[in-house]
């Protein structure tokens, strides 16, 4: 689909597109991008600074851009979940926060399970989990 769209926007069929064509191409693929985002993608693809990119360069730049978007989306999801669990607004999750979150979704959880969860995220002997520790753990879980 991406290659077909690239060919469609390569109006003179020379195997290259310019910035304006690439921006239209991105929108035709259903990506909502502003000028700044489009320039970033184009700049990543146009390593030689010629003002034109070929399909392989475009494909590689798109893969990088999509990965960045997925990472940002994942971090936002983690932040929302963390904030919902941090009911006492301390900036960290305690065993009580985790128990409350489990109860809200109908899960029963033991003290030992909570202790293990906290230690998995924050290290042995820890009693709370920071946002960064929580986010890191969620990223590890997603890799499974």
Could you state the order of secondary-structure elements as H and E?
HEHHEHEHHEH
Q: Which architecture of the largest domain would the CATH scheme give at its second level?
A: Orthogonal Bundle
What would the CATH topology of the largest domain be? Recoverin, domain 1
Number of spatially distinct domains: 2
Could you tell me the radius of gyration in angstroms? Answer: 22 Å
* Overall spatial form: elongated
Domain EF-hand: 1-32, 33-68, 73-108
Pfam families: EF-hand_7
Organism: Rhodosorus marinus
Protein name: EF-hand domain-containing protein
Verbal overview:
The protein has 144 residues and is mainly alpha-helical. It folds into 2 domains: 1-68, Recoverin, domain 1 (Orthogonal Bundle); 86-142, Recoverin, domain 1. Helices cover 66% and strands 6% of the residues. It is built from 7 helices and 4 strands, in the order αβααβαβααβα. It has helices spanning 2-9, 19-28, 35-45, 55-85, 95-104, 111-122, 131-143, and strands at 16-17, 53-54, 92-93, 129-130. Strands 1-2 form a two-stranded antiparallel sheet. The longest helix is centred in the middle third of the chain and has 31 residues, at 55-85. It is elongated. It starts with a helix and ends with a helix. The model has no long low-confidence stretch (mean pLDDT 89). Pfam families: EF-hand_7. It comes from Rhodosorus marinus. One of its GO terms (cellular component) is myosin II complex. InterPro entries: CALM/Myosin/TropC-like, EF-hand-dom_pair, EF_Hand_1_Ca_BS, EF_hand_dom. Keywords: Calcium, Repeat.
């Amino acid at each position: 689909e991406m290659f077909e769209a690239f060919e469609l926007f390569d109006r003179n069929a020379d195997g290259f597109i310019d910035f304006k064509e690439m921006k239209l191409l991105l929108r035709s693929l259903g990506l909502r991008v502003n000028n700044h985002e489009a320039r970033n993608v184009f700049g990543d693809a146009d390593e030689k600074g010629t003002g034109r990119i070929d399909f392989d360069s475009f494909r590689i730049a798109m893969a990088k851009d999509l990965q960045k978007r997925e990472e940002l989306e994942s971090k936002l999801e983690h932040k929302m979940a963390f904030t919902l669990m941090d009911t006492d607004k301390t900036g960290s999750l305690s065993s009580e926060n985790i128990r409350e979150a489990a109860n809200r979704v109908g899960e029963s959880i033991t003290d030992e399970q909570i202790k293990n969860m906290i230690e998995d995220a924050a290290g042995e002997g820890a009693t709370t989990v920071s946002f960064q520790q929580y986010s890191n753990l969620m990223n590890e879980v997603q890799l499974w």
